[in-house]
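Before relying on records like the one below, remember that each one covers exactly one chain. Contacts with other chains, cofactors or solvent are not represented anywhere in the record.
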Amino acid sequence: MTSDSNNDNTAVATARAKPLVPPLNFAMVAPGVYRSGYPNRKNFPFLQKLGLKSIMYLAEDDYFPETLTFLADHNIKIFHVRIGGNKEPFGEIDQKLISDALVNVLDTRLHPILIHCNKGAHRVGCLVGTLRKLQNWSMTSTFDEYKRFAGPKIRIADQEFIEVYNEPVPYKKDYAPAWL
């Protein structure tokens, strides 16, 4: 290959290209599974590059109309799991709802999938923490990951939830990811 700029195989990168902006707290959880905070309009081009098949929203609130439009326009399947957070003294995430959500996360037919809540910290942290238990991660590593995304707003109730989580997850083994 030559360095001839007229060659059809040559690509030129410029700083004038619009930057791709990931959502708050965006990261890969495992191949085909991503996590983040609530995506906004600035994040849509980034999400489009991921080629998402599914998105899972962990919150009681409804989606904003512009988000619903973006997801519909790109044929992205929505799983809205209406859960509140673990908030002392009375709020506690239902283990069955997390188990049901994990069934979808563990179905490669739905990958790539983005899991998000409002900030990408607590509810997503609980779901990812329970996924790490299924992957046999140590509690120390699981809590380190949780803390990295929760920042200074660590919730002991979230860590307790992850630690005592024991709900069966009836996923379809034929469609389970290799990393499980």
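The mean pLDDT is 91.
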